[in-house]
Design brief:
Blueprint: H1 6-19, H2 23-27, E1 30-34, E2 38-44, H3 58-76, E3 80-91, E4 99-109, E5 113-122, E6 127-140
Antiparallel strand pairs: 1-2, 2-4, 3-6, 4-5, 5-6
């Protein structure tokens, strides 16, 4: 795992601890790289990630991409809570085995809303899906 700075590291450690035994753990995602501009998460495709026709379920793409976009949103504003209010997905190519890497970046941030983008790719770089996420700033964290 690569990190860019000490403040990101402490915020990230807090998030990783909070995610233990959560949906994030169940689907098998892990943080690969983090810096001020991008988060990369990855997961190995397992049998329970597949749909009935044997390819990665669209919900798995969406969950991993939403999670990566949520991490970049939370790291860019660690003093507030954010939740997904909109998720737009575009599925480009099927995959049934191997490792998927999701990169997420911040596109725009205002006082109450944040817009992010993400790309899911095979390890060889082939594009699988892309999308955007909109996050609502709820309140200051306690």
């Amino acid at each position: 795992m690569e990190y860019a700075s000490g403040s990101i590291l402490s915020d990230l450690e807090r998030m990783v601890e909070a995610a233990k035994d959560s949906f994030w753990d169940y689907i098998g995602c892990e943080i690969i790289e983090v810096n001020e501009k991008e988060v990369v998460v990855g997961f190995d495709i397992l049998p329970h990630h597949l749909n009935p026709i044997g390819i990665l379920h669209g919900g798995m793409h969406a969950s991993a991409m939403d999670s990566a976009m949520g991490i970049i949103a939370m790291l860019s504003r660690p003093d507030v809570n954010v939740v997904t209010v909109g998720l737009n997905m575009n599925y480009v190519a099927p995959v049934s085995e191997g490792r998927v890497l999701v990169s997420a970046q911040m596109v725009h941030s205002s006082r109450k809303l944040m817009t992010t983008q993400a790309y899911a790719r095979k390890e060889n770089g082939d594009l699988l899906a892309f999308g955007t996420g909109t996050f609502r700033v709820l309140n200051t964290m306690k």
